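Need a sequence for this fold. Nothing fancy.
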């Protein structure tokens, strides 16, 4: 059965614009692919492990062709379990609000936990990195309350979308669709932009659902 993994980086629940748009995507996905599965991964639910000194030590051992032991092995095992949940999916949906021009720290933690040699990437000293997750497709919901593409720098800068798209491409996921909702808090009526974002999420979600059915056939 084809699986869509929804990874949410918003802690705001029912108040979250990115989660609301993601729900519209998932509703359309389910309608177009009724035999598919959606795995919901809330990065704030406590299941994401840390990746600190022991994890970094384990990673350097792996790079050196050695095996981590003791506390390093434990942290490496937890990182592998997180990666395996990530890699088990066929399609991805990420909901990412903008925090201080970038992504929430919990989303960066997710990236740092799963981005390991032999998991997300391979490395050759002659040719560099190779993404190991090729053949998958992703959709990303980007929201921001103040920053907007058409606004001056006093409204912020975008280190959210460029960074995350680059990470997906680096991991080998090059087929990426996105939905953006960037209302200016100084503008009273954000509804037209909200409707447009939900319409786009509905369109892309249905497209992903049809793709899922083809993958399952």
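Here you go.
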């Amino acid at each position: 059965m084809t699986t869509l993994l929804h990874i949410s980086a918003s802690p705001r629940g029912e108040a979250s614009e990115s989660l609301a748009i993601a729900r519209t995507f998932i509703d359309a996905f389910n309608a177009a692919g009724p035999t598919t599965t959606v795995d919901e991964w809330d990065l704030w639910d406590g299941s994401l492990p840390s990746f600190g000194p022991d994890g970094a030590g384990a990673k350097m051992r792996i790079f050196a062709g050695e095996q981590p032991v003791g506390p390093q092995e434990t942290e490496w095992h937890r990182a592998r379990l997180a990666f395996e949940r990530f890699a088990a999916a066929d399609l991805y949906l990420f909901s990412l609000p903008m925090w201080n021009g970038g992504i929430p720290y919990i989303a960066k933690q997710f990236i740092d936990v799963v981005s390991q040699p032999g998991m997300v990437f391979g490395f050759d000293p002659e040719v560099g990195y190779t993404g190991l997750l090729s053949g998958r497709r992703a959709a990303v919901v980007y929201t921001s309350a103040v920053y907007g593409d058409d606004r001056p720098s006093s409204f912020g800068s975008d280190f959210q979308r460029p960074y995350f798209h680059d990470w997906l491409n680096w991991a080998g996921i090059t087929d990426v669709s996105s939905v953006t909702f960037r209302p200016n808090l100084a503008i009273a009526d954000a509804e037209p932009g909200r409707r447009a974002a939900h319409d786009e999420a509905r369109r892309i979600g249905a497209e992903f659902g049809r793709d899922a059915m083809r993958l399952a056939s």
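For context: Residues 2 and 36 are 5 Å apart (CA to CA).
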